[in-house]
Design brief:
Layout (H helix, E strand, L loop, with lengths): L1 H22 L2 E16 L20 E11 L4 E6 L14 H10 L11 E7 L11 E8 L9 H40 L1
Antiparallel strand pairs: 1-2, 1-4, 2-3, 4-5
Organism: Roseovarius spongiae
Keywords: Membrane, Transmembrane, Transmembrane helix
Protein name: DUF1523 family protein
Length: 193
């Protein structure tokens, strides 16, 4: 029974960590090489795409999606989709897809340039080539070079608050159990003796 308990809690915390890793913003230092628009037909991976842009028709099986091609500091390519999140989940309230695409196009830099333009691309989501999943770019801003340090303050605050909430719930549950449930169980088991 102990193994079942550990498997349950282990699975629970892995799912919580995966949810947070997918949803919380991440920062990649990269060099943008191209921006483009592509018609996408949604299939089995449709849960990883945002809902249609605010003001667009809903229920369509395909739509045009902006993409940003980049190379990270380790010279590995990374492709980002650029879709509005609107009022949906995750709650980034992103309505500026076209503006972000223009900003990204303005920051295009080739490897052969004398001084390549490096940017910080803030995004959420995962990249999976097998399932054609792309992280969604939230913002792009120029930085001085590939060695800048980005401290994820927002993530630190959110995770600290979540730990505090879980700790507070656990402490209150243990106190409730000690004061209310355990005495009832002791009275009940004493009655059998």
């Amino acid at each position: 029974m102990v193994y079942v308990k550990w498997v349950f809690w282990g699975t629970f915390w892995v799912l919580v960590a995966a949810f947070l890793h997918y949803t919380l913003p991440q920062h990649d230092i990269a060099r943008i090489t191209d921006t483009y628009e592509k018609r996408v037909d949604f299939g089995e991976n449709s849960i990883f795409w945002s809902s249609p842009d605010v003001g667009s028709a809903t229920g369509t099986v395909n739509r045009d999606v902006f993409f940003i091609q980049a190379f990270r500091t380790d010279n590995k390519p990374m492709i980002y989709r650029n879709e509005d999140t609107g009022w949906g989940w995750p709650p980034y309230f992103k309505f500026d897809t076209s503006n972000l695409q223009a900003e990204a196009a303005d920051l295009i830099s080739k490897k052969s340039a004398a001084k390549p333009q490096w940017v910080v691309i803030t995004h959420y989501g995962w990249r999976n080539e097998f399932m054609s999943i792309f992280p969604n770019a939230i913002s792009v801003r120029a930085v001085d070079g590939p060695d800048v340090t980005i401290i994820p303050w927002f993530n630190i605050i959110v995770i600290t608050l979540l730990i505090a909430i879980f700790w507070a719930i656990r402490v209150r549950w243990k106190r409730f159990r000690r004061n209310r449930i355990d005495p009832l169980v002791d009275d009940y088991t004493d009655g059998w003796g």
